[in-house]
Automatic annotation (TrEMBL):
Top-level taxon: Bacteria
Protein known as: Putative superfamily III holin-X
Key word Transmembrane present: yes
Pfam families: Phage_holin_3_6
InterPro entries, alphabetized: Phage_holin_3_6
Transmembrane segments: 60-83, 89-108
The entry's keywords: Membrane, Transmembrane, Transmembrane helix
Amino acid sequence: MTIHPSTHEAQAERVAETSIGELIGNISNDLSHLFRQEVELAKAELQQEASKAGKAAGMLGAAAFAGYLAVVLLSFAAVFGLANVMDTGWAALIVAAVWAIAGAALFVTGRNRLKTVDPVPHRTVDTLKEDARWLKNPHG
């Protein structure tokens, strides 16, 4: 049984088309997988930054609470100071001053931590740049 040249060429063409189709399919699957991995990395980085922002916001909330207490205690101190010229009023004033110092310390600490929050997912950006370089020059 002999294979005619035209039949042999047709089979070779089908094999070449199948291989190209498979390659395109493989590339498509690989790119989809890579994209999903990049999205997962971005999510993880954003969650980490959101956690830092939440902690800093908690400290700022604590500073606001301490400030509120300072205002309340300073108000009581002023009342007691006027009503009782020395003893109770001055004691309340000292307590209020301590709360004011604590509030200031919490505020400064929270503000400084909030400054360290970075919303850019740097690792994801770096890997996307690397992927783009690879797509432009897969052999280099």
